[in-house]
Amino acid sequence: MGAYSYLETDEFTGGIVFAKSNIEARRIGANLLNMDDIGGMEVKRRKDLDRFEETGVPAWLLVSEGWRFECLGCGMQINEDEMEDAGLPVTGIVGVEHGHIYCCHVCRMQRMAEYAACKAFGEAFLDMLKGVVTARFPDIEPCFGEYRHHVYVPTWCSPYVVQQAKVHFSFPGMKIGPASLVYQHQANAHGSRITGPVKPEFYCCNGDREAFEALAGRSDQ
Ligand SMILES: [Zn+2]
C-alpha cells in the first residue's frame, strides 16, 4: 500500500492514509472526516511516507510541513509558530499521527504520571469500598472478583477526587445478579470540589430484593 495525504479544502483538515489507489485513499479520507461525498478533497501520493505504514507518521514531520495538532498534555496548539514561541524544537514533538501527540517529552511524562496517580487513587478507593461491603456484611464472604468495578477520577481535579465508583458483589440467595455499593458525587460540574462526605449506597436487582433485604436485616442484628 502507498501513503496518500488527504485534505478537505473548506476547513483544511486531513491527514495521511495508506491505500492501494488514489480513489481508495479518497474514500478512506472522506470516511475519516465524515464527509458524504469524496469531492472537495485534495489527495496526493506521498511516496516518501510509505516507510511509515507500520509505525505511523511522526507528528513532528507533519508539523514541519505545516500540519497542526493539539498536545494531549498541556492542550497547546502544536504548529511551527506555537512551537517556536514556546521555545520548543519541532523535532521534539512526541507521537505519531492518529496516536497520542505531545508538544515535548516533559509534557508526556507529566501526563503519564498524572494518569498513573489517578489510576492508583481510584484503585485504592475501590479497595476501600470493598472494605465497606465486608464490614457491613460480616457474616458472608462477598465475592468481588467476577464482576466489573468502576471508578472515575478526573485528571483535572487536584487534589484528586472520586466522582463515581461502584463495586459489585455476590451474596447468598442471589438469583438475578450481583448487588452493588455505589458512590456518586453529584456536584460534578467542571472544577467543583466535594464539599462534604458523600455516603455510598447499596443497590440490588429487583428480583433479588427480598434476599438482599433479608441479608441486610440479618447483618443489622
Ligand atoms: Zn504539551
Secondary-structure blueprint:
Elements (H helix, E strand, L loop, with lengths): L1 E7 L4 E7 L2 H11 L8 E5 L13 H5 L5 E2 L6 E2 L1 H6 L19 H32 L13 E3 L11 E6 L9 E6 L16 E3 L5 H12 L1
Antiparallel strand pairs: 1-2, 1-3, 4-5, 6-7, 7-8, 8-9
The structure holds zinc ion (ZN).
Mean pLDDT: 89
Low-confidence stretches: none
Fraction in helix: 25-40%
Please tally the β strands and state the result: 9
Order of helices and strands: EEHEHEEHHEEEEH
- N- to C-terminal distance: 71 Å
Tally of individual domains: 3
Shape: elongated
Name the ligand types: zinc ion
* Order of neighbouring strands in the sheet with most strands: 6-7-8-9
Using the CA coordinates, give the radius of gyration: 26 Å
Main sheet record: 4 strands, antiparallel
Number of helix segments? 5
Structural class: alpha+beta
β content, as a range? 15-25%
